[in-house]
Amino acid sequence: LEAAFQSKTLAGKRVLITAGPTFEPIDPVRGITNLSSGKMGYAIAQAAWEAGAHVTLVSGPTALDAPYGVQRQQVQTAQQMHDAVMAQVNTQDIFIAVAAVADWRVANASDQKIKKTSDSDTPQLQFAQNPDILASVAALPKAPYCVGFAAESENLLEYGAAKRIKKNIPLLVGNIGHHTFGKDENELVLFDAKGHQALAKADKQSLAKQLIDHISGELRGAHG
Ligand code: CTP
Ligand code: CA
Protein backbone atom coordinates (compact mmCIF):
# COMPACT_ATOMS: atom_id res chain seq x y z
CA LEU A 1 0.00 0.00 0.00
CA GLU A 2 2.82 2.38 0.88
CA ALA A 3 4.55 1.65 -2.42
CA ALA A 4 1.33 2.34 -4.30
CA PHE A 5 0.88 5.59 -2.41
CA GLN A 6 4.45 6.66 -3.09
CA SER A 7 4.08 5.98 -6.80
CA LYS A 8 1.32 8.63 -6.98
CA THR A 9 3.91 11.23 -7.81
CA LEU A 10 1.33 13.86 -8.83
CA ALA A 11 -1.15 13.34 -5.98
CA GLY A 12 -2.97 16.60 -5.25
CA LYS A 13 -1.69 18.27 -8.44
CA ARG A 14 -3.89 19.72 -11.15
CA VAL A 15 -2.75 19.14 -14.72
CA LEU A 16 -4.17 20.83 -17.83
CA ILE A 17 -3.31 19.28 -21.19
CA THR A 18 -4.09 20.28 -24.79
CA ALA A 19 -4.14 17.52 -27.41
CA GLY A 20 -5.09 16.72 -30.97
CA PRO A 21 -5.24 19.09 -33.91
CA THR A 22 -7.34 22.21 -34.27
CA PHE A 23 -9.75 22.65 -37.16
CA GLU A 24 -10.12 26.08 -38.75
CA PRO A 25 -13.21 26.45 -40.95
CA ILE A 26 -13.08 27.70 -44.54
CA ASP A 27 -16.85 27.37 -44.85
CA PRO A 28 -19.48 25.18 -43.08
CA VAL A 29 -18.23 21.99 -44.78
CA ARG A 30 -14.49 22.61 -45.24
CA GLY A 31 -11.52 23.56 -43.16
CA ILE A 32 -7.78 23.38 -42.62
CA THR A 33 -6.16 21.33 -39.93
CA ASN A 34 -2.86 19.87 -38.73
CA LEU A 35 -1.65 16.29 -38.62
CA SER A 36 -2.23 14.91 -35.13
CA SER A 37 -4.03 11.78 -33.96
CA GLY A 38 -4.12 12.98 -30.34
CA LYS A 39 -2.55 9.70 -29.17
CA MET A 40 0.46 11.28 -27.43
CA GLY A 41 -1.58 13.91 -25.57
CA TYR A 42 -4.23 11.39 -24.52
CA ALA A 43 -1.51 8.99 -23.31
CA ILE A 44 0.02 11.80 -21.23
CA ALA A 45 -3.41 12.65 -19.76
CA GLN A 46 -3.86 8.98 -18.80
CA ALA A 47 -0.37 8.78 -17.28
CA ALA A 48 -0.94 11.98 -15.26
CA TRP A 49 -4.23 10.60 -13.91
CA GLU A 50 -2.50 7.31 -13.02
CA ALA A 51 0.12 9.38 -11.15
CA GLY A 52 -2.69 10.77 -8.98
CA ALA A 53 -3.32 14.14 -10.64
CA HIS A 54 -6.66 15.80 -11.37
CA VAL A 55 -6.47 16.00 -15.17
CA THR A 56 -8.33 18.22 -17.63
CA LEU A 57 -7.84 17.56 -21.33
CA VAL A 58 -8.78 20.25 -23.83
CA SER A 59 -8.93 18.36 -27.09
CA GLY A 60 -9.35 19.22 -30.73
CA PRO A 61 -11.17 16.75 -33.00
CA THR A 62 -9.81 13.19 -32.64
CA ALA A 63 -11.19 9.67 -32.98
CA LEU A 64 -10.20 8.80 -29.39
CA ASP A 65 -12.31 8.14 -26.31
CA ALA A 66 -11.64 10.28 -23.24
CA PRO A 67 -9.06 8.51 -21.03
CA TYR A 68 -10.53 6.97 -17.86
CA GLY A 69 -10.75 9.46 -15.00
CA VAL A 70 -9.86 12.45 -17.17
CA GLN A 71 -12.18 15.41 -17.64
CA ARG A 72 -12.30 16.17 -21.37
CA GLN A 73 -13.47 19.36 -23.06
CA GLN A 74 -13.77 19.16 -26.82
CA VAL A 75 -13.08 22.17 -29.01
CA GLN A 76 -12.61 22.78 -32.71
CA THR A 77 -10.61 25.95 -33.34
CA ALA A 78 -7.40 27.36 -31.87
CA GLN A 79 -9.34 30.33 -30.51
CA GLN A 80 -11.75 27.98 -28.69
CA MET A 81 -8.80 25.97 -27.33
CA HIS A 82 -7.14 29.21 -26.18
CA ASP A 83 -10.32 30.41 -24.44
CA ALA A 84 -10.92 27.03 -22.73
CA VAL A 85 -7.33 26.97 -21.45
CA MET A 86 -7.22 30.59 -20.27
CA ALA A 87 -10.55 30.19 -18.43
CA GLN A 88 -9.09 27.58 -16.07
CA VAL A 89 -5.30 27.79 -16.15
CA ASN A 90 -5.13 29.89 -12.96
CA THR A 91 -5.96 26.88 -10.81
CA GLN A 92 -3.47 24.54 -12.47
CA ASP A 93 -0.06 23.33 -11.29
CA ILE A 94 1.12 21.97 -14.64
CA PHE A 95 0.25 22.88 -18.24
CA ILE A 96 1.28 20.48 -21.01
CA ALA A 97 0.68 21.77 -24.55
CA VAL A 98 0.62 18.70 -26.81
CA ALA A 99 -1.93 20.00 -29.32
CA ALA A 100 -0.93 20.65 -32.92
CA VAL A 101 -2.51 24.10 -32.99
CA ALA A 102 -3.12 25.70 -36.40
CA ASP A 103 -0.92 28.78 -36.55
CA TRP A 104 -3.42 30.54 -38.83
CA ARG A 105 -7.18 30.64 -39.22
CA VAL A 106 -9.07 31.69 -42.34
CA ALA A 107 -9.89 35.36 -41.89
CA ASN A 108 -12.47 35.41 -44.68
CA ALA A 109 -14.28 32.15 -43.85
CA SER A 110 -17.66 31.95 -45.54
CA ASP A 111 -20.95 31.54 -43.65
CA GLN A 112 -22.30 29.47 -46.54
CA LYS A 113 -20.73 26.66 -48.52
CA ILE A 114 -18.50 28.13 -51.24
CA LYS A 115 -19.77 26.92 -54.62
CA LYS A 116 -17.52 25.69 -57.40
CA THR A 117 -17.96 28.06 -60.33
CA SER A 118 -15.48 27.84 -63.21
CA ASP A 119 -12.07 26.15 -63.55
CA SER A 120 -10.19 29.42 -63.33
CA ASP A 121 -12.11 30.93 -60.43
CA THR A 122 -10.69 29.56 -57.15
CA PRO A 123 -11.43 30.83 -53.64
CA GLN A 124 -8.93 33.39 -52.36
CA LEU A 125 -8.29 32.57 -48.71
CA GLN A 126 -6.87 35.14 -46.35
CA PHE A 127 -5.25 34.14 -43.09
CA ALA A 128 -5.03 35.65 -39.62
CA GLN A 129 -2.61 34.46 -36.94
CA ASN A 130 -4.06 32.45 -34.06
CA PRO A 131 -3.14 33.19 -30.43
CA ASP A 132 -0.16 31.21 -29.14
CA ILE A 133 -1.75 29.32 -26.25
CA LEU A 134 1.47 28.06 -24.70
CA ALA A 135 3.18 31.45 -24.91
CA SER A 136 0.10 33.12 -23.35
CA VAL A 137 0.16 30.68 -20.43
CA ALA A 138 3.93 30.92 -19.96
CA ALA A 139 3.66 34.73 -19.82
CA LEU A 140 1.17 34.71 -16.91
CA PRO A 141 2.53 36.18 -13.65
CA LYS A 142 1.73 32.94 -11.77
CA ALA A 143 2.28 30.52 -14.65
CA PRO A 144 1.98 26.81 -13.92
CA TYR A 145 4.95 24.58 -14.79
CA CYS A 146 4.77 24.70 -18.60
CA VAL A 147 5.72 21.89 -20.97
CA GLY A 148 5.70 22.39 -24.75
CA PHE A 149 5.90 19.96 -27.63
CA ALA A 150 7.52 20.50 -30.99
CA ALA A 151 7.18 18.34 -34.05
CA GLU A 152 9.93 19.30 -36.45
CA SER A 153 10.75 17.90 -39.88
CA GLU A 154 14.52 18.49 -39.59
CA ASN A 155 17.26 19.91 -37.29
CA LEU A 156 15.41 18.74 -34.16
CA LEU A 157 18.27 19.39 -31.72
CA GLU A 158 18.84 22.93 -32.94
CA TYR A 159 15.17 23.92 -33.38
CA GLY A 160 14.06 22.25 -30.13
CA ALA A 161 16.58 24.08 -27.95
CA ALA A 162 15.78 27.41 -29.64
CA LYS A 163 12.01 26.92 -29.35
CA ARG A 164 12.22 26.22 -25.59
CA ILE A 165 14.01 29.52 -25.06
CA LYS A 166 11.71 31.47 -27.40
CA LYS A 167 8.60 30.14 -25.60
CA ASN A 168 10.21 30.83 -22.22
CA ILE A 169 9.31 27.42 -20.77
CA PRO A 170 11.31 25.06 -18.52
CA LEU A 171 10.71 21.92 -20.61
CA LEU A 172 10.17 21.28 -24.31
CA VAL A 173 9.60 17.83 -25.77
CA GLY A 174 10.72 17.39 -29.35
CA ASN A 175 10.05 14.76 -31.97
CA ILE A 176 10.37 14.34 -35.70
CA GLY A 177 6.90 14.69 -37.23
CA HIS A 178 6.91 11.92 -39.81
CA HIS A 179 8.18 9.44 -37.18
CA THR A 180 5.14 9.97 -34.99
CA PHE A 181 1.98 11.18 -36.78
CA GLY A 182 -0.76 8.60 -36.30
CA LYS A 183 1.73 6.00 -35.10
CA ASP A 184 1.65 4.08 -31.84
CA GLU A 185 5.37 4.54 -31.17
CA ASN A 186 7.48 7.64 -30.93
CA GLU A 187 10.96 8.87 -30.05
CA LEU A 188 11.24 11.95 -27.85
CA VAL A 189 13.96 14.40 -26.93
CA LEU A 190 13.60 16.46 -23.72
CA PHE A 191 15.09 19.96 -23.78
CA ASP A 192 15.60 21.91 -20.57
CA ALA A 193 17.98 24.55 -19.23
CA LYS A 194 20.64 21.89 -18.66
CA GLY A 195 20.63 20.55 -22.23
CA HIS A 196 18.83 17.68 -23.88
CA GLN A 197 18.19 14.01 -23.25
CA ALA A 198 16.61 11.40 -25.51
CA LEU A 199 13.86 8.95 -24.51
CA ALA A 200 14.39 5.81 -26.58
CA LYS A 201 11.78 4.71 -29.10
CA ALA A 202 8.82 3.16 -27.29
CA ASP A 203 5.05 3.07 -27.40
CA LYS A 204 3.33 6.35 -26.55
CA GLN A 205 1.93 4.99 -23.23
CA SER A 206 5.43 4.15 -22.01
CA LEU A 207 6.86 7.49 -23.18
CA ALA A 208 3.98 9.29 -21.49
CA LYS A 209 4.80 7.59 -18.16
CA GLN A 210 8.48 8.49 -18.53
CA LEU A 211 7.58 12.10 -19.27
CA ILE A 212 5.23 12.32 -16.27
CA ASP A 213 7.99 10.84 -14.06
CA HIS A 214 10.40 13.44 -15.40
CA ILE A 215 7.96 16.32 -14.78
CA SER A 216 7.19 15.09 -11.21
CA GLY A 217 10.92 14.93 -10.53
CA GLU A 218 11.46 18.46 -11.84
CA LEU A 219 8.59 19.78 -9.68
CA ARG A 220 9.95 18.10 -6.56
CA GLY A 221 13.40 19.44 -7.39
CA ALA A 222 12.11 22.98 -7.82
CA HIS A 223 9.81 23.12 -4.78
CA GLY A 224 11.66 20.92 -2.30
N1 CTP B 1 1.28 26.09 -29.46
C1 CTP B 1 0.20 26.69 -28.86
N2 CTP B 1 -0.54 27.61 -29.58
C2 CTP B 1 -0.23 27.91 -30.84
C3 CTP B 1 0.87 27.28 -31.47
C4 CTP B 1 1.61 26.36 -30.75
O1 CTP B 1 -0.09 26.41 -27.70
N3 CTP B 1 -0.97 28.80 -31.50
C5 CTP B 1 2.09 25.12 -28.68
C6 CTP B 1 2.01 23.69 -29.16
O2 CTP B 1 0.97 23.01 -28.51
C7 CTP B 1 3.37 23.16 -28.76
C8 CTP B 1 4.27 24.37 -28.86
O3 CTP B 1 3.43 25.51 -28.80
O4 CTP B 1 3.41 22.75 -27.41
C9 CTP B 1 5.14 24.44 -30.05
O5 CTP B 1 4.35 24.43 -31.22
P1 CTP B 1 5.04 24.63 -32.63
O6 CTP B 1 4.00 24.65 -33.69
O7 CTP B 1 6.17 23.65 -32.74
O8 CTP B 1 5.70 26.07 -32.41
P2 CTP B 1 5.51 27.44 -33.13
O9 CTP B 1 5.96 28.48 -32.17
O10 CTP B 1 4.12 27.58 -33.66
O11 CTP B 1 6.59 27.38 -34.30
P3 CTP B 1 6.54 26.81 -35.82
O12 CTP B 1 6.81 27.99 -36.67
O13 CTP B 1 7.68 25.79 -35.86
O14 CTP B 1 5.20 26.18 -36.08
CA1 CA C 1 3.15 26.09 -35.11
TL;DR of this structure?
It catalyses: N-[(R)-4-phosphopantothenoyl]-L-cysteine + H(+) = (R)-4'-phosphopantetheine + CO2; (R)-4'-phosphopantothenate + L-cysteine + CTP = N-[(R)-4-phosphopantothenoyl]-L-cysteine + CMP + diphosphate + H(+). It comes from Undibacterium danionis. This protein has seven helices and twelve strands.
Task: Offer a few descriptive terms.
Rossmann fold, 31% helix, binds cytidine-5'-triphosphate, binds calcium ion
| Mean pLDDT value | 93
Ligand species: cytidine-5'-triphosphate, calcium ion
Number of domains: 1
Strand content: 25-35%
Terminal CA distance reads: 24 Å
In what order do the strands lie side by side in the largest sheet? 5-4-1-6-9-10-11-12
Q: Would you identify the CATH architecture?
A: 3-Layer(aba) Sandwich
Structural category = alpha/beta
How would you describe the shape? globular
Q: Uncertain segments of ≥5 residues (pLDDT<50)?
A: none
